[in-house]
Design goal:
By secondary structure, the chain is an alpha/beta fold. The protein folds into two domains: 163 residues, NAD(P)-binding Rossmann-like Domain (Rossmann fold, 3-Layer(aba) Sandwich); 95 residues, ProC C-terminal domain-like (ProC C-terminal domain-like fold). 49% of the residues lie in helices and 14% in strands.
Length: 267
């Protein structure tokens, strides 16, 4: 399968690294990226990296076109790729709807909208996809395979859910990083040396995440497993789970705020 990657920033390069690791032939990929860094990183590995759409080889016919440019420039970029009407267009641009892409690429275009997240850089990403009616089973399978190179993939049928997806998994890594940051700061206030507090917080969040990934128990049960009645964890959780002002309510407010903002950005 020939793949055209438009944009090779952090997420684009994470995807490309994942494809190459999984055995996609470098000769089957063309990357459009004006920044010199992409050519330096991938051209020596056999990937054709060109500066603009005008330099794409005329005999290159992609099966999938991955749109990985910033949302604010997507409208300017799209018309140059409408000529690949036989391909599936896979967008990872936040906020841009299926209708937006159809307006620029034509009503006959097969379009998949995906929301990956930054753990894709370490192959632990989570991507959620929605497709328009033009995408057939083969197109879905191709997009699934490309996104699985950097983590897990789920599909939804209702595009309206993408704002909530963005708020939970798209923005979610920032919430986890804030947790580690806040835990380290709390440890320092409790008297720990700053570097030790940061080390403990980082290792604890990373280790707990890996335990959650590998365990057959849900998050709630894992929490119960580490909580002894009347112990130190129970004392801390009494604060974090206080009715009306605990972490659950705060996280709900945060996700609601991000969801609303996503709808605003989508217009």
């Amino acid at each position: 399968m020939a793949v055209l990657l438009v944009g090779c920033g952090k997420m684009g390069s994470a995807l490309l690294e994942g494809w190459l690791e999984r055995g996609l032939a470098a000769a089957d990929v063309v990357v459009v990226e004006p920044a010199e860094a992409a050519r330096t990183a991938f051209a020596p590995r056999g990937v054709r990296v060109v500066e603009s759409h005008a330099s794409i080889p005329s005999d290159f016919h992609p099966g999938v076109v991955i749109l990985a440019v910033k949302p604010q420039v997507m409208g300017d970029v799209l018309p140059s790729y409408a000529r690949y009407g036989g391909a599936v267009f896979l967008s990872i641009a936040a906020g841009k709807t299926l209708a937006f892409f159809s307006a620029h690429l034509g009503e006959r275009a097969a379009i998949v909208r995906a929301m990956p997240n930054t753990p894709a850089a370490v192959r632990r990403g989570m991507s959620v996809c929605v497709a328009n009616a033009r995408v057939d089973a083969k197109g879905r399978a191709a997009c699934q395979s490309l996104l699985e190179a950097v983590g897990d993939v789920a599909w939804i049928e209702d595009e309206a859910l993408m704002d909530a997806v963005t708020a939970v998994s798209g923005s979610g890594p920032a919430y986890v990083f804030l947790l580690a940051e806040a835990l380290a700061a709390a440890g320092a206030r409790a008297g720990l040396p700053g570097d030790l507090a940061e080390r403990l917080a980082r290792a604890t969040v990373a280790g707990a995440g890996e335990l959650l990934r590998l365990s057959s128990d849900g998050a709630g049960q894992l929490r119960v497993n580490v909580t002894s009645p009347g112990g130190t964890t129970a004392a801390a959780l009494a604060v974090l789970m206080a009715e009306g002002k605990g972490l659950t309510e705060l996280m709900s407010e945060a996700v609601d705020a991000a969801t609303r903002r996503g709808r605003e950005l989508a217009g």
